[in-house]
Amino acid sequence: MIHINTHFTADFYTPTEWEALLPEGEKALNTLYEGTGAGNEFLGWLNLPGNVTTDTLQAIQSQAAKLQKISDYVVIIGIGGSYLGARAVIEALSNSISHKKEGADYPQILYAGHQLSGDYLHELVHFLRDKRFSLISISKSGTTTEPAIAFRILKNLLENQVGKEGLSERIVAVTDANKGALRMLTKELELPSYVIPDNVGGRFSVFTPVGLLPIAAAGFDIAELIRGARQMEAKLFNDRSVESNPALHYALTRNLLYRKGYTNEVLINYHPKLAYLSEWWKQLYGESEGKDGKGIFPASVQFTTDLHSMGQYLQDGKRNLFETILRVKQGNYSPEIPMGADDFDQLNYLAGKSLDWVNEMADKGTLLAHLDGGVPPIQIEIDRLDEFHLGQLLFFYEVACGISAYLLGVNPFDQPGVEAYKKNMFALLGKPGFEKENQALKARLG
Ligand code: PA5
């Protein structure tokens, strides 16, 4: 299970302030579970883990096995919620150097359509031109520009390799049941496809085929991921008190800190494999909470790497931030520091100690130093980095996010702010229908 420790944050608010917030937390939690809040048409994710059937899992696994057999590389095409959950899990579980599942010959997962860089796409195409590769194209709307461009280019590359008739073996689509360009193409090319339910938004979709198919294609155990999520689903639903519900506990703590002026949350981890978990978390919380002039700004750092860059700011900079430290109790490997014959580097005092232990001391020392510097810390700990514990963690974050957003008084499930850049971009690109805006923007840019 997830362990949350807010022992040290209690220095930053009074017991009365904490007690006063509890009814609001309870109300936010009930709003979420009773489906009475804003955006309640997007609550399909809330009981997704429990609703995923064995048949669905088996169908996804057998599709993944087909892709594995014919591909050395699988390219996930998607942006935002359409790729971050999968990437978070795949990177957390893959070998740090080969970026693949260890052991048997699983494909390496590559990503496209998550930005518009010409260099990136050129280099990817160049790399893939003589490789065996497949595509998983993911877009709920089926019309998002970034993945649509990447798909068009990579589909052409694939067609040159395997011909039009070979595409249905090498491309799988995950999209809306009926709408969007991707669904139309799926019909035209008779591609295998999976549906993103209407009532699940992108950033809450990791337990749909959006996350499950890429994770399975990378060779990871989606049944275990779902088992972990299901266990967390039951716990959070059944244990509604703040003492035993980690999602409510986390949501209340971060909300109270926000009210006390700590408006930025920095997610910290001590394992580079968790970098994309932080990216997923930032999207989940940033898009869900940052609206109506409100919201905790979600940021992330990797320690100890960033202690040599951002560490200075965190220790000594503007005091408007709090930290959430995500710890993994037990790493998969923990090499020991060897005894040195001449101790030229004066590290013999560490001989025989494990790297995990050294990392843990860095974590504890940093926590206390930052506490002395006026930074409230929340500690979240999972036992191991495996599918089961990641399933628990992701679902915990999702529920906590829903509660947090309702505590803040915003709709967790819309993202009106994402449209502004799209409108301007379409106008500047000369998309039909945006002619008036094109003139106005060009005049502003000079
Ligand atoms: O969380 C969200 O809703 C967004 O981040 C979307 O996932 C993202 O914009 C991609 O949208 P789509 O899946 O429609 O291509």
Folded structure, characterized:
The protein is an alpha/beta fold and 446 residues long. The chain folds into two domains: 3-36 and 225-408, 3-Layer(aba) Sandwich (Rossmann fold), CATH 3.40.50.10490; 45-220, Glucose-6-phosphate isomerase like protein, domain 1 (Rossmann fold, 3-Layer(aba) Sandwich). It is built from 17 helices and ten strands. The protein has a five-stranded mixed β-sheet, with helices on both faces. Strands 3-2-4-5-6 form a five-stranded parallel β-sheet, sandwiched between helices. β2, α4 (84-93) and β3 form a beta-alpha-beta unit. α1 (15-34) crosses α11 and α11 (246-259) crosses α15 (387-408). The model has no long low-confidence stretch (mean pLDDT 96). The protein binds 5-phosphoarabinonic acid. 5-phosphoarabinonic acid binds at residues 79-82, 139-141, 144, 147, 201-203, 287, 415.
